[in-house]
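// run 5 | inverse folding | seed 20
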């Protein structure tokens, strides 16, 4: 009799435990989110149907990437590479570097991950802003050449004095990694805000598209709203990081690898929409450097992304695919980039 009571009690406890687990499992439409700081910016992952453990795993993933990719952390893989000239990279870092070099090649150097010595000379990674002399830039510019990076599997070698920075692709890659992690965890709907990079997983829970506001370079306003699903939306502009020199000229962090100077292409903002965060992140920088006409030609040759360009004189241009799902703010006239 006593054994029967014990068995019944154990069964009751087991049922209660199972019911408790079932009750605590989030439903597919239950919203959950996590905020954290990584890659020098604040990030938010908002997911539906994700439990706390999955969101913590997403944050840990980004922090791990940051620890390996940061140019300012002395123990990171990239910092060691820049210091020693040759290292064995982890598989993830090697794959990211390979993808970044591929975009450098695709854009004919408009994006160049070896521009870091120049960026550092301007003080954008140290916070000690300054305008390098022409003589200093003349010494640094020969070090800027992505084609000189030797990558063989996980083994990477740089020429003497050369250094790389994967900041132009890191947040995009992080978005891709988080999105994949959430999908593997059963999440069908999520919105990732990674410091200027937006990545969406699926549609909103009600089946509609996500409405992503594109920030205006000046003030707190917006250029308009893009409606997307399962896409990355990445915006780059000179307004993100800049300083005003002693002559009153604004100097921003997006460098022209050909000149070693802040890119002056006639553009003030570039938004790229596509399937992969890494590609959108990289192209937003490259297209900013190219300028309107070259960016339009590049899109005509590629056709695997959409873009929104804002010029210095306030003109707003969009490729047809983005124009179809973009609503400009009142007073903003949108011009569609044609096929010729």
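// decoded
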């Amino acid at each position: 009799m006593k054994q029967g009571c014990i068995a019944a009690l154990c069964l009751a406890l087991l049922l209660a435990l199972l019911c408790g687990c079932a009750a605590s499992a989030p439903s597919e439409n239950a919203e959950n989110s996590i905020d954290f700081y990584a890659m020098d910016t604040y990030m938010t992952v908002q997911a539906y149907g994700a439990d706390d453990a999955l969101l913590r795993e997403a944050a840990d993933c980004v922090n791990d990437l940051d620890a390996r990719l940061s140019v300012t952390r002395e123990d990171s893989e990239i910092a060691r590479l820049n210091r020693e000239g040759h290292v064995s990279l982890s598989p993830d870092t090697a794959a990211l570097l390979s993808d970044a070099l591929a975009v450098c090649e695709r854009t004919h150097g408009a994006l160049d991950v070896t521009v870091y010595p120049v960026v550092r000379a301007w003080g954008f990674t140290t916070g000690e802003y300054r305008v390098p002399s022409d003589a200093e830039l003349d010494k640094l510019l020969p070090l800027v050449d992505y084609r000189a990076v030797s990558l063989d599997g996980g083994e990477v070698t740089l020429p003497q004095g050369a250094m790389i920075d994967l900041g132009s692709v890191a947040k995009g890659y992080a978005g891709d990694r988080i999105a994949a992690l959430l999908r593997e965890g059963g999440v069908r709907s999520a919105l990732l805000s990674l410091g200027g990079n937006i990545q969406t997983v699926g549609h909103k829970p009600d089946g509609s598209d996500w409405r992503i506001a594109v920030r205006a370079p000046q003030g707190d306003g917006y250029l308009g709203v893009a409606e997307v699903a399962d896409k990355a939306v990445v915006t780059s502009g000179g307004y993100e990081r800049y300083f005003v020199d002693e002559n009153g000229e604004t100097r921003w962090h997006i460098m022209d690898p050909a000149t070693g100077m802040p890119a002056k292409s006639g553009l003030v903002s570039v938004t790229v929409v596509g399937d992969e965060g890494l590609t959108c992140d990289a192209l937003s920088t490259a297209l900013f450097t190219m300028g309107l006409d070259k960016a339009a030609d590049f899109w005509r040759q590629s056709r695997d992304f959409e873009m929104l360009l804002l010029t210095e004189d306030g003109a707003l241009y969009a490729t047809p695919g983005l124009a179809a799902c973009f609503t400009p703010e009142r007073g903003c006239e949108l011009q569609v980039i044609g096929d010729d």
